[in-house]
Amino acid sequence: MTDGITYAGSGVDTEAGDKAVELMKAAVAKTHGPEVLGGVGAFAGLFDASALKSYERPLLASSTDGVGTKIVIARSMDIHDTIGQDLVAMVVDDIVVCGAKPLVMTDYIACGKVVPERIADIVRGIAVGCEMAGVALVGGETAEHPGVMEPDDYDVAGAAIGVVEASALLGPEKVRSGDVVVAMASSGLHSNGYSLVRSVVKHAGWSLSTSVPELGRTVGEELLEPTRIYSQLCVSLAASTPGLRAFSHVTGGGLAANLARVLPQGLAASVDRGAWDLPAVFSVVQAAGKVPWHDLESTLNMGVGMVAVVAPEDADALIAASAAAGVPAWVLGAVSEDAGLPVGPDVVRGAKGVDGGSVVLSGAYKV
After folding, report:
1. Is-annotated flag, keyword Nucleotide-binding (predicted)?
2. In whole angstroms, what is the distance from residue 289 CA to residue 185 CA?
3. Distance from C-alpha of 71 to C-alpha of 75, rounded to nearest angstrom
4. Are residues 191 and 150 in the same domain?
């Protein structure tokens, strides 16, 4: 008589999952303030929303995202904590665009095999990102998928909820002709466009350990640079800048397409490509793959991770506040009436289902 089929024999190790939870508990707990009730391991995370009673009309903002194929770099380098900061940034920095303060976040990890230390590294990175963002990590799930994913494969996703007073909501409705467009620097590639970047790396014959003089480090170190988290800075700017109209998180689609999403119909924002020095990684990718510049800028952030649209009288103060927080900022251009230019490589109108305003790109990048 043969032994029966067991869950462990089918490839799912629940004990390994329990060990991973034990290894990550302390890091997760560090993100909890007095508003978080209970501890790690409950069926649902609890957050005391009593503070929302002070809002006249609280609006809940939600977002969910992942980190795309950047995960391949983390797996290849066997470095798993920084990907957590990427995940937090991609989620919470979408929420702050409307002026909302992120409150709570949850994560989901799917893997071929639970390696407790690796899962704990990922979650510790998420917890560090949550601390940086001022958000509580109140729950998560790790799912083992043997036979569907290879043992060393994994992917991550996250979701968050924030709150904003209805009267303080930022967005296209507040943007006016004459407003100033301010760029806030990215930390590098962030977490978009990695399918293009990985194709360039392969085409160039580089490995992740290849040192590139222009970068001052290896390809892998550059590609794994964590995404900048803007949330606490943006929340502070929203509270202290009367003339702040909108933020735009520069993710998939590039600078112009994402800026167009927060402009109303009838208005256009100018972007001067010569307004900043292009970080080396973008010119390296372009040169190594002979990537057309228009394709590059419609895929990557080109050194701008967040954009603020602000009244002209408040632009200097916003730039100074951003710089004081360690995020270089500068004027990109201004908002004006849409001249009705035809859509083309230098004119982007609306994006991602939003029938909004236009962005006009001019000049050349300083490389």
Report:
1. yes
2. 24
3. 6
4. no
Confidence check: pLDDT of 34 > 90:
no
What pLDDT, on the 0 to 100 scale, is given for residue 297?
A: 96
Q: In the predicted model, what is the mean pLDDT of residues 33-61? A: 82
Share of the chain above pLDDT 90, in %: 77
159, 40: one domain: yes
The Cα–Cα gap between 150 and 289 comes to: 30
Identity at 299, one-letter amino acid code: T
Q: What is the CATH number of the domain that holds 79?
A: 3.30.1330.10
Dihedral sign for Cα atoms in the order 364, 206, 250, 351: positive
The domain boundary, picked from 165, 191, 207, lies at 165
Domain range for 345: 172-362
Residues 105 and 154 in one domain: yes
Which pLDDT tens digit goes with each residue over 63-121? Answer: 999 999 999 999 999 999 999 999 999 999 999 999 999 999 999 999 999 888 899 99
Query: Which residue, 262, 242, 8, 25, is CA-closest to 127?
Result: 25
